[in-house]
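Final report, Chapter 2: Outcomes

The project's central promise was a pipeline that accepts a single protein chain and returns its three-dimensional structure in a standardized token representation, suitable for archiving and comparison. That pipeline is now operational. To close this chapter, we reproduce one record exactly as it appears in the project archive, with the input sequence first and the structure output second.
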Amino acid sequence: MTAPIHILVVDDIAQNLVAAEAVLARPGILILKANSGAEALELLLTHEVALALIDVQMPQMDGFELAELIRGSERTRGIPLIFLTAASREPSYSFRGYEAGAVDFLYKPIDVKALQSKVAVLVQLYQQKRELSAQLDELKHALHLNELFTAVLGHDLRTPLSVVMNGAMLLPMMSDHPKVIVTAQRIESSAKRMACMVDQLLDLARIRSGTMELRSSTHDYLALARAIVEECETAGQAPLVELSSVGELHGQCDAGLLSQVISNLLCNALTHGEAGTPVHLALDGRAADSIELRIANRGVIPAALLPTLFEPFQQAGEKRRMGQGLGLGLYTVKMFVKAHGGSVELSSTAAQGTLATVRIPRHCQVRVQAGLST
């Protein structure tokens, strides 16, 4: 059942409270009556109200003072307030009321139709707000379940995947038949690609759930870059990578995350650049407070794709259909760099080709990333 909607009416005259209840009460709406400001504050401690009708002229605590106290609380400051008054329509009087947080003034004797109309609008707005809040809670719960499912699925896929990879490595030892060797190589290659996808799913789950931990210590950026280039060499791509460096390249970072940043950008450059042209990986440590990495390749990214390249699942359609990845590489690059307090920029023109520039502060604080946003 839908919870009833409460309307608070504050007036020091009992007959006015009874009249307000008679005019406003209807199925689904409960009228909370208070004959003083203190009693109204007590009711607000235990009830959530859609709006409050407040008589201005009350003893001990007038309507303006009550409104200021309501506005001073985080829990009640969003409640719409309608002042009821028998005072004259002086502009200074109205100004004080609006300054105290009133959404409207009604002068006694009250026009019943006008009061009912204004209350109906505010009640409808409150209902819509409550429905939106409930929908938001449901969406948050669904998102949490989805992220939990992604993390569990990614974790549990590792075991059968490792069996496939080990089997693929053992097959050539069991037979020297050319077809067996070729088949084993294809299985191993596909398994490695799948392992990369699983890692990306786990990275995405950690980023979205806010549980990604940055383990920062001092590292040699050049040594990290050389290790990635050696991995490319194993895959037969290193001859197309030109590594250069200048300046002091020791700085604080999470070596694992930074290695993934370099690897993702380098693999993208090798995959999408012009065939047969080298990729340039340059490290610049001349700045005192940051270290810069630049990955450049020949080839042009369409201008229409540039604004969304760092969003998840934005991989080009043809590559996506070929099963070359999930389209999460550049998204994780952006989030890992952001976790270090750095920045990543990408530009692409026919004259210069495509250039990715990453800047990482030389000194990063060790912290747990919670709720990273895009």
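Archive annotation: Residues 40 and 98 are 20 Å apart (CA to CA).
This record, like all others produced under the grant, will remain available to the consortium after the project formally closes.
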